[in-house]
Amino acid sequence: MKEISSSEFELEINAGGKLVLDFYSTECPPCDALAPKFEGLAQLYGNDIRFVKMYRQANRELAEKLGVKSSPSLLFFEDGKQIGNMLSGGIKRSEIIHELNNMLTHDRVEAIKSQIKPAVSEFDVLILGAGPGGLTAGLYLCQSKVNTVLIDIALPGGHVSTTHEVSNYPGFIDPQPGYLLSHNMSEQTKLCGTSYKVAVDVTKIDLNKKEVVIDEFETIRAKKIIIATGTSPNLMGIPGEKELKGKGISYCATCDAKYYDDKEVLVIGGGNSAIEEADFISKFASKITVVHQFDSFTANKQAQEKLFANPKIQTKFGFEPRSFVREGDKIITEVEDLKTHERSKLVSDGVFVFIGMKPNIDMFRDKLELDSWGYVNTNEDMLTSMSDIYAVGDVISKKYRQITTAVADGTIAAISIVKELS
Predict the structure, then answer these.
(1) Cβ(378)–Cβ(417) under 8 Å?
(2) Which of 137, 158, 264, 353 is the S-S candidate for 410 at Cβ 3.0 to 4.6 Å?
(3) 300-349, pLDDT tens digit by residue?
(4) pTM passes above 0.85
(5) 288: containing domain
(6) Where residue 220 sits, what CATH number does that domain have?
(7) How confident is the model at residue 256 (pLDDT cuts 50, 70, 90)?
(8) What number of helices (H) and strands (E) belong to the chain?
(9) CB-side exposure of 184: number of CA atoms within 13 Å?
(10) Whole-angstrom distance, CA of residue 49 vs CA of residue 21
(11) In angstroms, what is the C-alpha Rg of the chain?
(12) Domain count, the chain
């Protein structure tokens, strides 16, 4: 692994051959998550492709010239020319391998694959999911000197990291940016000693054997597992939604609201998320129409009062979307009046959908006892229907899903496990 500066960049590029460059930063969790993957792949592919790193903060001018806007960012070069896709943020090992393999012949790729040796690691507790519940469990476990590993397909934080503002977390007088709250939770758990394997591909989960395979080659075993996989946004399942997802239809205001400056958008939904996020989107958009199937919102009264007082926001009660179509730069949303059954079309620059969530349990759905909504049933110790398998946070059957309740779940599960292992 070689580190270079911008003054050495041209020389390195002009040397020809194949090269991958990592722009990294300090105090950067995604960079920390990438480092072991990058170094491991350098050992595998190093005879064919040169692996180099560059400190982004000290080489800003070159980074900006190359279009690097976040850390980490991986750029791929061949014979002095940039090729392939730039990878940024929570980069998965499989994404890097895909770009590296595209730079080599099929025979060379197969030869490198044959060198990959399966790895096995053992822990006392394995936590699946790095949201508030999983992070809190990890914190309590590591403080009790329990050897713990935390695994997530994304970066730590869960939905909190994409929430623009958290105003009701105890201990903070002023509202906290979601990304900052989740970052502080993650750093506290990491510094305590919990091992992190994040932004990985989960290949297999075997609850009976209490083992998880990540990135197709590493098997992680534990005495106990905590499921903290959280939820994902519900989809409407209507024509055009799948095709326009990420291309005008979004499920994350924090991620995408900034792209609708002085534009018109629709918000679908009437719960807390829809109403609170509509208010946030109004910081950017010039006009927002909230479409809700019922005659009133289900969000808390304070959020509703704030929305009704916002001159940028109008409401459309008793309507439900039936299809989405893109026409030029606009999205045409066909909606149905649920009383008259008449259909009409709404024109906007984008659509945000907030119609609830579903538990992320696809890889072990048939192994656990679930409630009628598909959430995991647990007892008062957060133990599931399987011995040594616990569950916490939004994935479990519960009346209220909040950051504070997820944190409480993680605390209970960890304390219960510590007593079991003692």
Answers:
(1) no
(2) 137
(3) 999 999 999 999 999 999 999 999 999 999 999 999 999 999 999 999 99
(4) no
(5) 241-353
(6) 3.50.50.60
(7) confident
(8) 12, 22
(9) 7
(10) 10
(11) 24
(12) 3
